[in-house]
Every structure is written in structure tokens, then in C-alpha cells.
Predict the 3D structure of the following.
Amino acid sequence: MKRVFTLSLVLILILTLLTGCQGGSADELNGKEFFAMDTYMTVRGYEADDELLDSAAKAVTDLEKLISTTYDASEIAQINEAGTGTVTGEAAELLEEALALCGEMQGTLDISIYPIVKVWGFTTKDYRIPSDEEIASLLEKVDCSRIEVKEDGTVTLDDGMEIDLGAVAKGYAGDMLAELFSEAGVTSAIFSLGGNIQCLGSKPDGSPWRVAIQDPESEGVIGILPVTNKAVVTSGGYERYFQGEDGEIYWHIMDPATGRPAKNGLISATAVGDSGIRCDALSTALFVMGPEKAAEFWRAHRNFEMVLVTEDHEILVSAGIADDFEPENGIPYSVSVIE
């Protein structure tokens, strides 16, 4: 008998919530909660009125309808079904950005991994351990470089290939919401989109938003990260996983090279940067890379920051945020800085 475990939140917001949602004053943090992309989301902003909050929720749910693999009428689901089709508007932009990010992540992120995720049961919750033969057969279809996208938005997939933009969709949504609020004149807002936190500006008094990073082995936190105008995105094996009949734990983050859950020494990876979609991609890719390759990748780029938690109970913090990161008292982890 397989058992399934979930934790509802990857990141926890540490902020003071003020009452009231009808106004829009500079000293009032107004918010709206809704369910989209298979998670509960919260959008909050100072001077954000109900109309803006409703528009934000609609923008995310409209995006989901364009790209969801499980919504038959979505553009992505139709492409997967027919092997070809057309993406428009935000779906086209998201696909273009996703493919560019897959190329940058050196094979550790691939939007064509969807058939592998399906065969493990993570799309239906009918969890199973596929055979080596099944995995090998499906891996032949995993290669996003073979996805053909024309200027008119026509997408063509190889026979048997399917794509899923879920690894970057919430990050894209965070960027989209930040732009939406900025255009409405809001300069201080925070969005909690599942494991993605997107901060617009700082708090009205100029102090940073304080984002807590989940302890991957408990419902507590490992530390606090003060941020201003940044995205903070965490991926971890604890988000969705099951225990097989063999007693092993299998999580949903797949290694495109093996077709199996990525187990390279990390149990949590957090990316911090200016772009929500890039941090979304990075959090998955860093998890797949493992601590050594992730450190090498950071040193080669240095245009993002990260907090990694290893299976050996070590927190690795990149140098750019090491002075800001505030470890929680009493956590069973040592903290080291990646220089």
C-alpha cells in the first residue's frame, strides 16, 4: 500500500496582516486569497483596491486556462493531444521564456519531462514505480530542443512528446502580477503563489519584506530572508511525494537525465532574484543539480542567490545574501557560505 504525504506551504510569509479589504489606503495591506494552479494563492498590496485584487486573481486563473495540462480546452493540452497547435498571448510568451530557461539550465530543467511525471502518477495521484523499460522508452521523448515553435505561434512536437509549463508558470504569474500592480500605481505588494513569493518594492516604511524558508523536514522554518523587490522560490522533495511498497520515498522533482526523482544530495533549494520565472526555473534546476554542481552554476553566473539544504543537515547560503540570512534558533542544521 502506497502512502501519500503533502505539506501545504513551502514558504511562509512573516509580515503583519492588517484587517480590512475594502479600502486602499497607504497604511492598509489589502489582500485576496484564491485557488489556482493547484495551490492556494494570496495577493496583497498597500493601496490595492478590490478591483485590482480581483483583476490579479483573474489574470492568474486566465493564464491557467491557457496552459494547464489537465484542462482539455487549454492550448497546451490541445498541443499535447494532437502533437501540434498554436499558442497565443501569454501562453506564447511563457513557452518562449521556458524554452530559453531550459537551455540555460544545462539539461536539469526540461518542459518535455511531462510523460515521465505522468507515469510516476504525480498528475493523477495514482502513484506507482514504473519499470526500467517504461522509463527508458519515455526518456527517448524527453528533449525540449526538439520542440518546434514558429513565429506565428505554431508548435510541433515529436510523436509521443508532451510538454508541461508547470515548473515556471507560477514564477511567470508572479512577474505578471508585479507588472499589473506597478501599472496600477502600487509600489508595495507581496504575492504568495504556493512555493513562490514575489515582493514588489519594500514595505511602506522602507523596511524589507521578511520571508521565511520552510524547514524541509518539519513544519517549521530554517531561517528568515529580508528582501526588497525580489522573488524567492523554493523547491523541495517534501512538496509532493509518496512512499513506495519498497519503503523508499519518491518525490515529484524529476531528473531529466534519468527519468527518476532527483536525488543528488539536496532536500530543498531556494532561488532569490529579480525575475520570478527565472527563480522558479532555478529552484528546480538547482535541486536536480545537487549541492556541488549548483555551487558551480552560481559561481559561473552570480546573477541570483540561493539557499540550499542538504540531506546531511547543512544549509548552504550564497555569499550575496549570507549576511542577510537569519538562521532560526535551534535548527538541526549547520550553516555554510558559498563563496
The chain has a mean pLDDT of 92.
